[in-house]
Structure formats: structure tokens, C-alpha cells
TrEMBL record:
Pfam families membership: Ribul_P_3_epim
Lineage, uppermost ranks: Bacteria, Bacillati, Bacillota, Clostridia, Eubacteriales
InterPro entries linked: Aldolase_TIM (IPR013785), Ribul_P_3_epim (IPR026019), Ribul_P_3_epim-like (IPR000056), RibuloseP-bd_barrel (IPR011060)
Residue numbers binding substrate: 7, 65, 141-144, 174-176, 196-197
Similarity field: Belongs to the ribulose-phosphate 3-epimerase family.
Pathway entry: Carbohydrate degradation
The encoding gene: rpe
A Gene Ontology term for the protein's cellular component: cytoplasm
GO biological process, any: pentose catabolic process
Molecular function as annotated in GO: D-ribulose-phosphate 3-epimerase activity; metal ion binding
Residues annotated for a divalent metal cation binding in this entry: 32, 34, 65, 174
Name of the protein described by the UniProt record: Ribulose-phosphate 3-epimerase
EC class (word): isomerase
Source organism of the structure: Butyricicoccus porcorum
């Protein structure tokens, strides 16, 4: 199943509960929470206290993306805050596999992300243990950037590895997804689409429904054969 994970980085920060409710009521499966520390990326956004507040504000699946230099320092906080999925970056400090295992032992789904300049191969040894993998399709840090086309080959490579080995691992992409390029992104093999500006810029419910329509069309064609 193809899922939408609206990135609240582009939502109204004074009305997160409202904007999340509109997106979820319109059919979004996950809610993507971009946590940035001003070190791993040149932007400072959301910390564990806000995730904790969001946990009280919604029953939606909180898909928490840690763009932080030192996950080991903060993993406990994000686990206790009520994250459903936690993504750590392969490029962050520490032992990525140990971080994945810690997340899973806490009963939280674990995901590892790579930046656009990191080859997909680094994920291959991790895939058997992952609930999800996240291919960044923009340089992490800011919403509203253009999709980097060169990342599509990485989506294809990871989809092939997941399918050939029968791994139970979702494949998420993050950055620059619009209604126009999403058909190609899902055709390449992504099954969780993060979209920020394309969801929260304008009519939130209408935008979510636009993505869902594309997903439905793809699934109907795909399963028709
Ligand atoms: O992680 C992010 C930036 O680091 C954002 O989630 C991502 O860029 C989504 O925003 P948009 O859909 O507007 O590109």
C-alpha cells in the first residue's frame, strides 16, 4: 500500500493540531515530523517536547525524522515522547545498527535515512533489520526544494533489494514530491511519500486527496496485471 506522510515542517506551527487533523481526516496515513538540531543540518526545528505534545493531540502515526548529529544523546527522549517510527541518519554520529536495535527494542518502528550524496549500497546490510528506509531526495534542512532526479536510481535499487529478499521494509522518500512527479516516484518503488509544501501550501485536504488519487491509480494499474 502506498502511503502519504505529510511533513509538518510546512504546516502552520501555531496550529499544528488543526493542520494535522485536516491532513489525517483527508486520508494521510502518517505524519512526518522533521527534527533538526542546527548541527546535522543548518536549521533548528522540533524537539522531543513538541513530539510529546503532538502525541497528545493526535492518534496518527508519528513518523519522526531525526536530522541530528548525535542520535544517541536523544533517542530515549524521542522514544518516551511517543514516536511511532523513528528515523536516524546513516551519516549521523554513532553506530547506526545499534541505534536501530535500541529503537526496535523500545517497541518503536526503526528507519534509516541517507542524504542525496550517500550511495544506496550502505543500506543493504541494514535492510533485514529495518521497518522502513528513507531516501532523501533533497539536501535535508529545508522544505520547498526541488526533487533531485539522480535519487530515483537509488529508490529503484533499494526497491529491488527489498523485493528480491522479501524484506518487510517500507521505502519512504522525502523532499520535492509534488503531484506532478509522484507517479514516477511510486513507479520507481517508493511506497511512503513525504510531502510538505505540496500538502500544507494551500488547500490541505484537497492536496492530500490529490496524492491519494495518484496512489489509487497506480495501485489499480499495478494490481490489474
Ligand atoms: O526533511 C525535509 C527537509 O529536510 C522535509 O520533510 C522535506 O523537504 C519535505 O518538504 P517538501 O515536500 O516541501 O520538499
Amino acid at each position: 500500500m502506498i502511503k502519504l506522510s505529510p511533513s509538518i515542517l510546512s504546516a502552520d506551527f501555531a496550529n499544528l493540531q488543526r493542520d494535522i487533523a485536516v491532513a489525517v481526516d483527508a486520508g494521510a496515513e502518517y505524519v512526518h515530523v522533521d527534527c533538526m538540531d542546527g548541527h546535522f543540518v543548518p536549521n533548528l526545528t522540533i524537539g522531543a517536547p513538541v513530539v510529546k505534545a503532538l502525541r497528545k493531540a493526535t492518534d496518527a502515526v508519528l513518523d519522526v525524522h531525526l536530522m541530528i548529529a548525535n542520535p544517541d544523546q536523544y533517542l530515549d527522549d524521542f522514544i518516551k515522547a511517543g514516536s511511532d517510527i523513528i528515523t536516524v541518519h546513516y551519516e549521523s554520529n554513532g553506530d547506526t545498527l545499534a541505534q536501530v536495535r535500541k529503537i526496535k527494542e523500545a517497541g518503536v518502528r526503526a528507519c534509516v535515512s541517507i542524504k542525496p550524496g550517500t550511495p544506496a549500497d550502505v543500506l543493504l546490510p541494514l535492510l533485514p533489520e529495518l521497518d522502513m528506509v528513507l531516501i532523501m531526495t533533497v539536501e535535508p534542512g529545508f522544505g520547498g526544494q526541488g526533487y533531485i532526479d539522480a535519487c530515483t536510481d537509488k529508490i529503484r535499487a533499494i526497491r529491488k533489494a527489498i523485493d528480491e529478499n522479501g524484506y518487510q521494509c517500507e521505502l519512504e522518500i522525502d523532499g520535492g514530491a509534488k503531484l506532478t512527479n509522484t507517479p514516477d516516484i511510486v513507479a520507481a518503488g517508493a511506497n511512503v511519500i513525504v510531502a510538505g509544501s505540496a500538502v500544507f501550501g494551500g488547500d490541505i485536504a484537497g492536496n492530500v486527496k490529490g496524492f491519494k488519487k495518484i496512489f489509487d491509480e497506480f495501485e489499480n494499474n499495478y494490481f490489474a496485471f
